[in-house]
Amino acid sequence: MVSVGIIGGTGYTGSELLRFLVNHPSFDVVFATSRSKEGVEIGEYIPSLRGLIEGEFVSPDSSLDADLVFTAVPHTKAMDYVPSLMERGMRVVDLSADYRLPFGVYENVYEKEHVDFGREAVYGLTEFNRNKIEKADLVANPGCYPTGAILSCLPVRDEADKIIFDSKSGISGAGAQPSSASHFPNLDGNINPYKVTKHRHQAEMKMILGSKTTSIYFTPHVIPAVRGILTTAHIFGCGTLDLEQKYMEYYRDDHFIRVYSDIPKLSSVRGSNYADIGCFAREDGDRIVIVSAIDNLVKGAAGQAIQNANIMMGLAEETGLKTPPLSP
Fold first, then answer.
1. Catalytic residue selected from 144, 153, 238, 279
2. Residues in the chain with pLDDT < 50?
3. Do both 100 and 153 map to the same domain?
4. Among residues of the chain, what percentage have pLDDT more than 90?
5. Range of the domain at 63
C-alpha cells in the first residue's frame, strides 16, 4: 500500500479526494489536515463519508509522514508546505496554482511573490504530460477551466491561429466559503460572466496552447448548478476535415476521454473523472466548434490529482477512478 496524506481536507477538493481515496485499492489515507477542524472526526464533518473512513483531522503543523501528499489548499498557500514535505522525502501533487506557471508569470498573474523560487514541477494534465508525470516528484494539477479548455483543443493546437473559449461553470468552483457570488438568490435564474478578459486561468491555456501564431481568448461564466464545466471552443484556422476521427485517434489510449459527435452534457460526467468531447461543427470553412464537459471537482481537480498520483507511484492511471457518472 502507498501511504497518502491530504493538506487541506475540509474544502470541496479535499472532500472529493477523500471520497475517491476511501475505495482506492492501493492508497491508504494516513492523515488529512485542517486548522479549523483539528480533532474533529472526518466522517462527522463530512457526513457523506460516515462509516466509510476513520480518524480525525489533524493540524498541518503536526508530525506528518506519507509516501505522497496532496496539497489541497488555496492559491498562494501551497508554497508554504511543499518545500518541507519534499525535503522530508514526500512526493507531492499540488492542487493549487502555486507551481503551474513559470516563475515571473506566476507573480504577475497572482500578484504574490513566490517563496519557493526555482523549484520545478511537471504540469499535471495527464493526457498531455503522462511521460513526465511518471518521473516527477512534484506535479502541479491544472486548473479546472484549463483542463476542459485544453483537452478540447489538444489534437488541433498546432493548426489553430485563434481560439476563443466560452466556459460555463457550476458554483462549486468558487470554493466552500460562502460569498455574494454563491448566494442562492443572486445566482438562481442567472448566468453571470466574470473576469471577462482577465481570468488568471487564461495564463495556463496560453502556456500549453499558445504560440507566436496562436491567440487565446477566454471568458468564464457561473451558472446555477453545483458541479461541472461546459466549454465551447471556437477554433479558427484549422484545416482538418474529419475532426471526429482526428480526435478519436489522438485520444484512443486515454482512459478518461470520451469522444463522440453529439454535444456533451454536464449530466453525463457529473461525479466522474471523465471528459466528454464532441460537437465538431464547422462554419464556412473558417470556424470549428468543439464542446467539452467535465466535473470541475473531479477531472478538474481531485480525480485528475489521483490520476497523476497513480502514474507517479507506478500504478495504472485509472486505479480507483472508474466510477460511472451520476445520471440523472
1. 144
2. none
3. no
4. 83
5. 2-120
